[in-house]
């Protein structure tokens, strides 16, 4: 295996005396032209944006949802009472150093056990992160430690300081009453509902935000929101009061990245412009400067442009998919699209 890389976060003073790791990172110099970017989201959508943005800047911070209640993350959340680590693990993996060292540790983090016992389908990275949280007593320090191990090209932070539950008002679940609303609770249940999601909210309704998140947003040049599961990974960021306040006060410009396809259940029947309308309804104070969309996901360019214009945003249509008919982003195409967004200027 190659020697450990130098990575970029944080200084050794973030860790208790005696626990400073010997692998990475001494802070590497950052090109002065690289923008400071904060990417908000969770799951595969955030991994896609991070895989692209890492080609454009080292000054990259991922702010990740902490509402997952399914799979390995859900089990650890219920058993240990801490944040669900899965989406945080995926974000860290997307930022790994592009070397044998970084890719190997990425694969270790993403590995899932197959067994007949309690370890079945647990991700190694989830267990590692949970272990560091218990040892260090600080979630951000634990994530920074894993980032050092990966030689991560950026930093990963939790959206809130406590685990969250997503609650949705869903229409169409009551037979014969398509407009009757049913309350659905939990990220997995909301994401897989067969009804139509009308609105979402968080429990607790006023979760605390980490100061590192506020600082990252406040000092950013760009904030990237999406792609991802709209109601369960994207919109929740706008409902954490401290984070929402930072997003409305920052001088950073905001880019909304629309999905390549609707998500069955969660956004069935949604047009591209409907995603923007829902976003504006949940965060009326959010300034949007750019909307990035792939032409394959837009059925009415005029309607989408009209909604973008109403938000004061520039619409950029760019091919971002892998091109095989599946709704997956190509990292280099998405990076080129973000480069165009950042170059567009005020």
TrEMBL record:
Localization terms from the record: Cytoplasm
Gene: yvcK
Major localisation: cytoplasm
Name of the protein described by the UniProt record: Putative gluconeogenesis factor
Entry keywords, A to Z: Cytoplasm
A Pfam family hit: CofD
Ranges of biased composition (kind: Low complexity): 1-27
Native species: Kineococcus mangrovi
Family classification: Belongs to the gluconeogenesis factor family.
Keyword Cytoplasm belongs to the record: yes
Origin superkingdom: Bacteria
